[in-house]
Design a protein that fits this description.
The protein is of the alpha/beta class. Helix 18 runs antiparallel to helix 20 and helix 20 packs antiparallel against helix 21. Strand 1 and strand 2 form a beta hairpin. The protein has 24 helices and 16 strands. It is 45% helix and 12% strand.
């Protein structure tokens, strides 16, 4: 590979920039040689030439082509050079190792773990505040809609010291999100004219379309300044809005004039790029247009990301846990001052508009905090870890839970489904409840119904009327599941779910209501007391029919392939086919973002895991034989759920390996993304179908009609089930139907 590094002092810029092809990282064509664009932070030609020579040496010497050499490289090369070379390789950073600066306590330390799960906007974070005793301190942040955008882990402890570990997205991943924001803003700019378009450009440039990476929190936007009408203009309804909006103190005050100057600079640069594209008659909607090859676009991206990196300067205390570069991958902080601690914590979780331009919230991956967190009425902290994260979203079309959520199931002792009592058990909650049951975690399910105070109706004279109404909705869905298939879950599991409901009101008040205080303590107590009955399953054996397992797997694959054939439009488009741009965005995430889904609507891995889990649930609930026959139902259910959870934990890796992490499959995702031009939508769908042919192969009833790949696939799956059954003193009775 050529070691040439291009160094240019762009017109109008302060200093030199470099462009080079990375020898280790792949570009979107799937070939080694990712294009990297960086500023050198110097206008000195002599120094720039020295930095270029250092970088060329690193590219030429394979010794440095391993990310483990990064810290050593700082002793031999300039920091700017080391960061430019290693930042694109940081996407595989071991987040767990960084988080373990604060070890996650478990049963050995007497701790139980609870996962909060529910749709966006139902009050999940408000409930978390009450459980953690941070209502008056307004931590974590709440607002209407999607607020929590990272994984939050709160360790309740009697220790008086407060600790936190924060992990951040890699610089390379942030560059990709910024790139998408620039592309979206270019699309807006190319289709609007005049000064009125600046606000529209600002909204696209500083708010990513998935509403997770809101660059306005990091960089500010036009709405922060009086001259754009945000502070001086008063609407007739402003008084109502202000009186009903939670006010959070400014965390770090920013110079609004400087923020505005930088925001306008970025917008001006984007408009210049668009003017150049227009003058060159470039069609940005044509798939042949590649913004990642456009030097001015890369330069703007680099400047925006460099500005984001400056926000790490706010981390004046604490300890960096990663390398010496400018970008911070993880940070640790400890203090005995609760007020100082929570102020610092809000830097990573707040969305307070008074602090826009000085928050790190959008690029936080996981936030683990430990300290004296407990409800106000409790004398000491319960030994509980609370997990919270990105919600299920508002859309009711989701059919699967994202893998990142399911991976928390096994870590948790309790799965707390948070739902809005005003409209209980709607589609997203039904989907989540069904999934948790099918994965074998029915015994972990607890319900928390919020907004009981807002339930209105002539049929509600007292709390018990509301409680009965909520439970009727839950019971109705459980009966519906039973009608669809009697073997979905047991009567004992249904009874356990109904008896594990808790009710909350007035979540937005500084002083919790009597109802909320009572059910908060009952919820925490139930989490602490889970599995204390000590039921034994050691003497029970279950025997299963291998042929029946085969039929269930076959059915799950067939249903999944039918659904995804329609989603990608292969071999023909249907009314259910997703727009090509969203399918392309999905392939981009799988190929380059290290993410296995696009939003909560396109989840090829999670959807397949869900179909397999649904079929396994039916299969495992019907053992061929139970020994001893007189085994009590609750013990049988406990054993079956243990088997389900074991298998489903392995299913995540099974699907990942076959559909995504296999090198040949990854290459196909990359090829699918780079399809462009005429007929590219069809060719992309065809390439995805090739992936599914290997990751979810249609299997025949007879061995002589199957390829070796199909045979190996089904036998690998059966081996997972068989080994898990054996581990639990159960068995799979084999028949020679594949020979």
């Amino acid at each position: 590979m050529a070691t040439k590094v291009t160094c240019t002092p762009p017109k109008g810029k302060k200093g030199y920039t470099i462009n080079f092809r990375h020898p280790v990282e792949k570009d979107k064509s799937g070939k080694y040689g990712l294009k990297v664009h960086r500023g050198l932070s110097t206008a000195d030609e002599k120094k720039a030439n020295i930095l270029v020579a250092q970088l060329e040496n690193m590219i030429a010497d394979e010794y440095w082509w391993n990310r483990s050499k990064r810290n050593e490289a700082y002793n031999h090369f300039d920091t700017i050079v080391v960061d430019a070379f290693f930042d694109p390789m940081d996407t595989l950073q071991d987040e767990c190792a960084l988080l373990d600066k604060i070890m996650l306590p478990g049963k050995a330390e007497g701790y139980k773990r609870g996962l909060l799960l529910g749709p966006s906007g139902v009050g999940k974070t408000s409930l978390l505040r009450i459980m953690a005793g941070t209502v008056k301190e307004k931590f974590p942040t709440t607002s209407t809609g999607r607020t929590t955008t990272c994984n939050m882990e709160i360790i309740m402890s009697d220790e008086r010291d407060y600790e936190m570990v924060i992990t951040f997205m890699s610089r390379h991943l942030v560059e990709m999100y910024v790139q998408e924001c620039i592309e979206a803003a270019i699309d807006v700019c190319m289709h609007t004219d005049g000064e009125q378009s600046r606000q529209a450009i600002s909204e696209s440039l500083f708010i990513h379309r998935d509403l997770v990476v809101r660059l306005s929190y990091l960089l500010g936007d036009l709405t922060l300044t009086p001259e754009t009408g945000n502070e001086d203009f008063e609407d007739d309804f402003d008084e109502d809005i202000i009186n009903n909006t939670e006010k959070e103190d400014t965390i770090y005050s920013q110079d609004s004039n400087m923020l505005l100057q930088k925001v306008n600079y970025f917008i001006d640069e984007l408009i210049k790029i668009c003017d150049t594209l227009k003058s060159g008659d470039v069609d940005v909607e044509d798939e042949s247009f590649n913004p990642e090859d456009n030097i001015p676009i890369l330069a703007l991206r680099d400047e925006m990301v460099n500005e984001i990196a400056k926000r790490f300067d706010l981390l004046t205390n604490g300890e960096r846990l990663n390398s010496k570069g400018k970008w911070v991958n993880a940070w640790y902080f400890k203090t005995s001052d609760r007020k100082e601690f929570l102020k610092m914590a809000k830097l990573f979780s707040s969305n307070s508009k008074g602090s826009w331009g000085g928050l790190l919230t959008p690029i936080v991956k996981t936030m683990r905090v430990k300290g004296d967190f407990r409800p106000a009425a409790m004398d000491q902290s319960p030994k509980i870890v609370l997990f919270d994260g990105l919600g299920l979203g508002h859309k009711t079309t989701a059919t699967s839970l994202p893998n990142r959520i399911v991976e928390y199931f096994r870590l948790s002792d309790a799965i707390i489904l948070v739902d809005n009592a005003q409209a209980p058990v709607l589609d997203n909650v039904k989907m989540a409840l069904k999934a948790v049951i099918e994965y074998g975690y029915a015994s972990k399910i607890l319900f928390a119904f919020t907004h009981v105070d807002m339930m209105k109706g002539d049929n509600f004279h007292k709390f018990d009327d509301k409680r009965r109404h909520i439970l009727a909705a839950l019971n109705s869905y459980l009966h519906e599941m039973k009608r669809q298939n009697e073997d979905t879950f047991s009567d004992a599991e249904a009874k356990s779910i109904i008896n594990s409901c808790h009710f909350f009101s007035d979540l937005d008040k500084d002083e919790p209501s009597k109802m909320t205080q009572h059910y908060t303590q009952s919820l925490l107590k139930q989490i602490e007391n889970l599995y204390s009955a000590g039921i034994t399953i050691e003497d029970v054996m279950l025997k299963y029919d291998a042929m029946t397992l085969y039929s269930h797997v076959q059915a799950g694959i067939r249903k999944y392939r039918d659904i995804w054939s329609q989603i990608i439009g292969y071999p023909v488009k249907t009314e259910k086919t997703t727009h090509w741009s969203r399918v392309k965005a999905l392939t981009r995430r799988l190929a380059y973002f290290g993410q296995d889904h696009y939003h909560n609507e396109l989840m090829p891995l999670a959807d397949f895991r869900q179909e397999l889990s649904s079929q396994l649930n039916l299969f495992l609930n019907k053992p061929l034989k139970i020994i001893p026959e007189a085994t009590a139902e609750d013990i049988r259910v406990m054993l079956i759920n243990e088997i389900k959870s074991d298998i489903n934990a392995q299913l995540i890796d099974f699907v990942k390996n076959h559909m995504w992490q296999d090198s040949s499959q990854m290459q196909k995702w990359e090829e699918a993304y780079r399809e462009s031009g005429r007929y590219s939508t069809y060719y992309r769908a065809s390439k995805i179908n090739e992936i599914l042919e290997l990751a979810a192969p249609q299997i025949d009833n007879f061995a002589y009609n199957m390829t070796d790949i199909q045979k190996d696939y089904i036998m690998e799956f059966i081996a997972i089930v068989e080994s898990t059954l054996k581990k639990n003193n159960c068995s799979l009775e084999k028949f020679n139907y594949l020979t």
